[in-house]
């Protein structure tokens, strides 16, 4: 069982990553929040399962959706793992998954679990509804 102060502290680390790194492109903060030995257990295609791979993913999302921003719906803590349910929003104004910019507004849901130890994100597991993004961009039937 995690005490309430520790739970809030590790949720804050994950929230800073979501809101400031992903949502605002603060890649200096990325270096502070992620452990050097970070492991992504569910890496996205074209990335590596390490800290460098996550940075590639984050930059790709910001390049494809310059106004990319998250909406956190809830977070929960189990031991040292923070699970977050959120919706990402953005305007498709850059290449995404080989799809040229369409100018369309998109949104997609994601559930992430991140382990936080000593104030650093050490592990990630996640599921993103990219199928819905492809539908919104007209690449798959709705």
How would you sum up this structure, described in words?
- This is Ester cyclase.
- InterPro entries: Cyclase_SnoaL-like, NTF2-like_dom_sf.
- It holds the Pfam family SnoaL.
- The protein is an alpha+beta fold.
- The protein has a single domain (4-136), classed as Nuclear Transport Factor 2, Chain: A, CATH 3.10.450.
- 33% of the residues lie in helices and 35% in strands.
- The protein has a 5-stranded mixed beta sheet with strand order 1-5-4-3-2.
- The protein starts with a helix and ends in a 6-residue tail after the last helix.
Task: Give the gist of this structure.
InterPro entries: Cyclase_SnoaL-like, NTF2-like_dom_sf. 33% of the residues lie in helices and 35% in strands.
């Amino acid at each position: 069982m995690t005490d309430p102060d520790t739970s809030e502290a590790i949720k804050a680390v994950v929230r800073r990553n979501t809101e400031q790194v992903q949502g605002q492109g603060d890649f200096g903060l990325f270096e502070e929040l992620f452990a050097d030995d970070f492991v992504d257990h569910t890496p996205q295609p074209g990335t590596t399962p390490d800290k460098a791979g996550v940075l590639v993913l984050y930059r790709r999302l910001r390049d494809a959706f310059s106004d990319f921003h998250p909406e956190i719906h809830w977070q929960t803590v189990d031991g040292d793992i923070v699970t977050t349910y959120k919706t990402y929003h953005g305007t498709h104004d850059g290449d995404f998954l080989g799809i040229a910019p369409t100018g369309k507004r998109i949104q997609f849901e994601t559930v992430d679990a991140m382990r936080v130890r000593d104030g650093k994100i050490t592990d990630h597991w996640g599921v993103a509804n990219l199928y819905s993004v492809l539908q919104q961009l007209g690449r798959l039937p709705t």
